Amino acid sequence: MQSKIYTMPNKKYKIAVIQLNLNDVAENNLKKCLSWVRDAASQGAEVISLPELYSSHYFCQSEDVDNFALAEPLYSTSFIAFSALAKELGVVIIVPFFEKRMAGIYHNSAYIIDTDGSEAGLYRKMHIPDDPHFYEKFYFTPGDLGFKTIPTQKGKIGTLICWDQWYPEAARLTALSGSEVLFYPTAIGWHPGEKEQYGENQYGAWMNVMKGHAVANGVYVAAANRIGLEQYLPDTAGIEFWGASFIAGPQGEILAQASHDKEEILIAEVDLDLQENVRQNWPFFRDRRIDAFGDITKRAID
């Protein structure tokens, strides 16, 4: 099979994250997301990311086997629709979806679809949380594809998903493999009863850790969150997704920031000359003491 031929790298290209309110009807979410991707492309975006698990409400608020019916096999509905759109528009699209790999094995995954409609890569979420109303371990097998850079016709990108965003190791390994941008499709929000007491610190920590990934690795970071109160379970307060999607530059500077409660498209430019200049002046990769990092693979240093 002939290898795919990539064009010379672009020195500048525009990326976008789309922040949306999503519901429990897959067909509606698909139509909505196709329309918003088209809008982003019309505004000049060349690499476009949707939020985590775009095709449904955030069903992990409960442990319910009926929710496995929301999963789809590889290269079915989502891939077919977004592949056609990527080819039509000549853009790269990151499509996070609920993957049915086989009976009993499901993943929280993302397609990276290239400008010709082909699959540039597939990422399976590596870190799986289990918190109140974020019961993801019930549904998702941890990813087995590792942390990697996906070459596309627009640039070299890395895709991590939501809970991955708290792990500097994930960002570092993805950046070390050549990523210019780290995309984080996300579904994160407040428990309404905790928002007043803890909400500001929770949201601030989320922003700070990803901005830190940008600084420590000299990469662009783009987070695509959802918005809205999803209160689909009786006798529960639901989750208020806090939006605030953003794009940061390689010094952690905020290039674009969304609101907490509106559907929005954020667009920013990736400048590879700027990225190289930042890494030349802040040579964190040069000074890493890789000879002293062996213990990082241990669960604890006892």
From TrEMBL:
PROSITE patterns: CN_HYDROLASE. Residues 13-272 form the CN hydrolase domain. It comes from the Bacteria. CDD domains: CPA (cd07573). GO terms for molecular function: N-carbamoylputrescine amidase activity. GO terms for biological process: putrescine biosynthetic process from arginine. Pfam families: CN_hydrolase. Keywords: Hydrolase. This is N-carbamoylputrescine amidase. It comes from Flavobacterium gillisiae.
